[in-house]
Each structure stands twice: as structure tokens, then as C-alpha cells.
Amino acid sequence: MISPVGGFSWGRIISSSIYKNKNLLTSAFFSTGKVNDIVTTEVDEKDAVATMVFNRPPVNSLSLEMCQTISQNLKHIENNHPHIQSLLLKSSNPNIFSAGIAIEELHNPDPHRLAQFWTSFQQLFIDLYTSRLAVIAVIQGHAIAGGCLIAMCADYRVMISKKTATIGLSETKLGISAPLWMADLMVRTVGTREAEKGLCLGLLYVPGQAMGIGLVDEVVEEKKMEERAREVAMMWTGIPPEARVKSKMDCRMRYVEDLERSRKDDLDSFCEFVLREGVQRNLGLYIEKLKTKKAS
To answer: In sequence order, what are the residues at sequence separation of 6 or more whose Cβ sits closer than 8 angstroms to the Cβ of residue 241?
Structure first.
């Protein structure tokens, strides 16, 4: 059992039931983080709902530091606010939830930092996927590749209705394949056939398509996003935590245990793959395309 790593602790779950004691809910609001932090958190003690905001311009790409900071903020909420039951994941950028892994972590990387990065990315998945909190992904814009992974780790996904927003695992378009544990999460989310097409073709789905295949749970108009996300968080908060978290872990823990058993092999395989000459060439071509697009 990987409880300490995954963030799953029955002691913490049981202690979280103190949210029922209204005398403890005296503080209305708590905030941590500076305006320019890459991740900020706010904790509403009264409603037992926390909010985490991604704030790494321009596209909330997942660097080593970004992955570590998300995990650290999540653990801070879990450990220091035991009665908090739900977490809203949002972006400070109204058009992008997260564009996925920072390409600078992959292109011509220092091998030591590459290993550190992938370890932090694995850990981010473990921490989010096994959080005792009911995680609600508030997807205001693009959730691509690693951004889609973060959304799939959530207990519930609310996506904006604008057709310019897309979500999916698009790694193959960069010449990279999603690791087995990420691909397996896609299969569990949308089913085998749809996942196979999405993964092989690097498909990005507009909101209606995403809801149709189960990649998101709701599609909501922009003006109603905040209100609806809050309603969903309160719905999950209202479920007795011991029952809710045990049900969640019964469904999820075995998959995380599979990753833990193969974590070193996954790390070695990923680093070896990324450092291949052909993969580096494809990444370089992609970066040149981005530069050309920006210049035009």
C-alpha cells in the first residue's frame, strides 16, 4: 500500500469529519500565495472548499517547479485544513487551463533534471489522483496533454462551452507517446476504442465532443462557470467524507499501486525515449513551428 506517497491516510480522513462541528468554522476565508506565484490557493473555511489557481504565464505549462508547487500546495491544504472537503482547480488565464508539459523540460534536457522532472510529474499524478479532497476541474480554456491529465485526475470536470476550448492528449503530434499510466487513465475515462483513437491521433476535443465521450462531465456557459463549479464543489462536500474517500480509493488505488511498482522502469523508459535523436529532432521542429507562428 502506498498511502504515504499517494496522500491517502485514513487518519486524515477520519479527522476530516470535524467539518461537521460548526464551532470550528469560525474563520470565513484564508489565502496563501503572492500575486506572482505560479500557483496560489485560497481556503474558504466556512464552506469547506479550497481553490487552487494555476498562474504560470503564458500557458500554465508544467515545468519541474510547477509540478512540485501544485503538489506542495495540495499537501498544504490536506494537512493544515483537515475539514476542507473539496478543491476547485482553476487557471488565472481565461483561455488556457494548462497546455501540458513545458517543452523546455524535454528539448535538449540535462539528463539529471529530466529525471527530476518526470519524477515530479509522476508524483503530481499520484497526489491529485489519490487526494482525499473532491477535486473539481474548472476548465475555462484549453486543457492539452498534461493539462488534460490534470483534468482527468479530478473527481468532476466542468468545461466552458466556447468552441475555441479543446481538451485531449495530443502527445503523438510532438512525436511523443503518452506513458502507459496516462494512456490507461484515458481508457478508464472514455473507454478503450475512443482512447485508442484519441491517443494515436493526438485528438483534441471541443467541449460538446468531450462531454459526449465522458472526458468532461458538464459543459457550461462562461457566465455561469463560477457559480456552477461552486455548486458542484458544495455537492461533493456534502457527502460524508469517510464513505466518499473510501469509495474513491477503492476505485483508484490499485492503478496507482501499479505505477508505484513500475515507477523506476517508467522513469528509465521515458528518459531513454525522450533523449533519442529522432525524438529530439521532432521536438526541435515543433519549437521552430511555434516560433514561426508567433512571428507571423
So the answer is: 13, 16, 17, 19, 85, 132
Distance CA 128, CA 71 (A): 8
Handedness of CA 268, 112, 186, 78 (dihedral sign): positive
Give the span between the Cα atoms of 53 and 72, in whole angstroms.
13
CB 142 within 8 A of CB 166: yes
How distant, in Å, are the alpha carbons of 134, 209, 271 from that of 279?
37, 30, 11
Q: For residues 219 and 160, is the Cβ–Cβ distance under 8 A?
A: yes
Q: Are 129 and 182 in contact (CB under 8 A)?
A: no
Q: What angle do CA 47, 50, 52 make, to 5 degrees?
A: 155
**For residue range 56-77, what is the model confidence (pLDDT) as tens digits?**
999 999 999 999 999 999 999 9
Determine which helix (DSSP H) or strand (DSSP E) holds 239, and give its type and residue range.
none
Omega within 30 of 0 (cis) for the link into 58: yes
Paired sense of beta strands 49-54 and 86-91, if any: parallel
Task: State how far the Cα of 60 lies from the Cα of 54, in Å rounded to an integer.
Answer: 6
What are the residues facing 42 on neighbouring strands? 31, 51
What is the Cα–Cα distance from 139 to 158, expressed in whole angstroms? 6
- Burial of residue 226 (number of CB atoms within 10 Å: 0-12, 13-18, 19+): middle
pTM, two decimal places: 0.88
